[in-house]
Design goal:
By secondary structure, the chain is α/β, with parallel strands linked by helices. The chain is about 35% helix and about 10% strand. Strands 3-2-5-6 form a four-stranded parallel sheet. The chain has a two-stranded antiparallel sheet with strand order 1-4. Strand 5, helix 8 (about 165-170) and strand 6 form a beta-alpha-beta unit. It starts with 7 loop residues before the first helix and ends in a 10-residue tail after the last helix. The relative contact order is 0.17.
Length: about 220
Amino acid sequence: MVNLGNSWDELLAEEFGSDYYLKLRQFLKEEYFKSGHRIFPPMNDIFNALRATDYNQVKVVIIGQDPYHGYGQAHGLCFSVNKGTAIPPSLVNIYKELESDLGITPPDHGCLTEWANNGVLLLNAVLTVREGMAGSHRGMGWEIFTDKVIELLSCREKPMVFMLWGNYAKAKANIIDGNRHKILTAAHPSPLSAWNGFFGCRHFSKANEFLGEDRVDWRLE
């Protein structure tokens, strides 16, 4: 049984017992132990985003698609990689925008755990993937689960900021209460699209302006 160690456990208890999730769980058992493929992230890291950022502590939500599919990259936080791993191109561009927007010098690593601990929920829509096969676990139930996470956040009375980068993330806007929360949209930060509206979006300063005294410390050590 999944144990997240915070208020997500109670909020998601019904999901973890649902038919679709039990089927997903069986699929993951076969993928991790019988498929002959390496699956990322490591099993114990699948729910790191929810473990690191309690429901009541969320200030900003950043939505990714599915985990990095290269060895040693994914560790359960979207756009983030373990320290010692090369910084992926999309994250390089995120750092460039952060520096342009807030003057924050990029770190020499790609681990965003500090953001997660400071109230930034780094949520992929799909939480697992086969090595070298982007999108290989789509349509197996993860999207139902993570949409529920987004809906629960949308229902929270205390406002937060949703950063939706790229068309896949923007499609989640229809399950977010835009009257209560701040929805910021931009192009995806990948090298293929960052120049079409990600660079210059100033989402980091806009989020902090909306959050006021509850702003995020975006610096990374």
